[in-house]
Amino acid sequence: MDKILVDTDVILDCLFDREPYSEKSTMIINLCETGKVCGFVTPVILSNCYYLLRRKSSHKKVTEILLRLLQILDVLIMDKNIALNALNSDFHDFEDALQYYSAKEQGKINHIITRNVKDFKKSDLAVFTPEGYLDMKL
Q: Model-level pTM greater than 0.85?
């Protein structure tokens, strides 16, 4: 079974119904919910989602949304080693480096699903847009 890291943009496309991306992003989340793939996030992804959702909704509502999301997705661990690898990497975006090394070092992730594929050029994990991943899977 595929194990995927679902990036912040994919989750927010689904939650904010951002067209034209929401349909495919929702399909990714649904694959996780139905157990067809194992979905993961990182603490940074959760924090990003909280921050952006909180701008439009109450703390209570946002925490309810994230609690529901965590019924579907598991959370990867981030530690000092991951932070050091990210800081010493060739990634131009520290946040993406954190996501990548969290996924890679724990050996749990086969694919990263993001709309920012170009930010993961240095990845030796397979990186797909939601559309690309769905085209490959279906």
A: yes
